[in-house]
Amino acid sequence: MKDIQELLNQQSFFKDMSPEMLNQIAGCGENQEFSPGEYLGKEGEPAHHFYIIRSGKVSVQINHPSKGAMTIWTLTPGEYGGFSWIIPPYRMQFDLKAQEHTSVVALDGKCLKKICDEDHHIGYIFMQQAAAIMVKRLHDTRIQLLDVYSTKH
Amino acid sequence: MFTAQNISPELTVEESSSDIWIPSPYVVADKHVENDDLVTFVYEPASEDILDPMQPGQFNMLYAFGIGEIPISVSSLISDHPRITHTIQNVGAVSKACCNMRVGDQIGLRGPFGTPWPVEDAKFKDVIIMAGGVGFAPLRPVVEFIEEYRDDYGEVNFLFGTRDPHSILFHQDVISLQSDPSVNFQITVDHSFSNWRGNVGVVTTLVEKAEFDPENTVAFVCGPEIMMRYGAYSLIDAGVDEENIFISMERNMKCAIGHCGHCQYGPLFVCKDGPVFLYPAIKNYLNIREL
Known about the structure:
The complex is a heterodimer of chains A (153) and B (291). Chain A has 153 residues and is of the alpha+beta class. Chain A is built from four helices and eight strands. Helices cover 35% and strands 29% of the residues of chain A. A four-stranded antiparallel beta sheet of chain A has the order 1-8-3-6. With 291 residues, chain B is an alpha/beta fold. Chain B has two domains: 4-112, Beta Barrel (Elongation Factor Tu (Ef-tu), domain 3); 126-285, Rossmann fold (3-Layer(aba) Sandwich), CATH 3.40.50.80. Chains A and B meet through strand 5 and helix 4 of A and strand 10 and helix 5 of B.
């Protein structure tokens, strides 16, 4: 578990957590590897994991009936994927697909939620960080929707 | 530290020669279609009437005879003077006429006008070039200049965001930059296709992938105004001093020497005081509607 704790310690997401907190959270984690084209999770499936991308690249995708899989975002090393375990109905909202060979720290959602429920201080830090990322992504998505590069206004 | 004074050539009507109003005849020497609505032209003089050499960031007024004039930034300085390279987006009557020109067709040019990117002053610093869409074109001469004097600069980051994979321009430059170990080139698209393997997301997210010392970094930003606004925010959030952020504005420039007022922007004229501005000089106007 020490390896996982060290990896967590390097992430800005966990910067406000004490070593004891990190030790607890590290207990929920494991290293996972994904080959190109392999899914970390699929839309509609129960959300099991919170992923910290260590290397590689992950596409956040929506499957379009006629256009196929549309990548709406990409996750690169140091970024985070899979927040659905924290919010009901705990269901994956998008596909997460490895674009290249990808290494992640996968934190088990149920385990994390149990820790957050039992220690609200950890839960608060977790939600604070998660909210900051989700708000930034929502903001960036709004800018994407503006289609600022289009000349057809 | 940069000041507005040391990037502005302070061109005045009085100092400019009377023939600043008269276009010099040039001909299309080369034409390259970049994508559906963007064309790059190399022009060469059709007479002994030759424009002065341009600096990165400056623009010329391009006159499609009988139709009208438009301001277009220089998009490359590799072609030896007196050749001039411009990349034109087909968005209106004049630009359409310009884009439709063929090799050998004649065009009128006035210039060069406006403030340049302060590439000399940025030497010995880390550099972030942030381009959005067609904003790549005015920044291309900056990339060329830095590549020519690469040893004089610290870390060089080129962050390029565009609409979708089809709208990527200067393909050869992009391929070259992707394989250049001396430049941290990052590209992202707002909207992807299923066969796109690159980044998807707004260009501001690329700041996190840039390598730089915030206290010794100069940033050059060009693109749609919204993108530049949020680009500046993301650079400031990353620790870059706003006094070291330059952005290139676009307005309806007509006379190009601050005489007609078409491009007035608060107390400034984009044609004369810009188009390259120090961010603090214009930041308070960027959020004013219909300015």
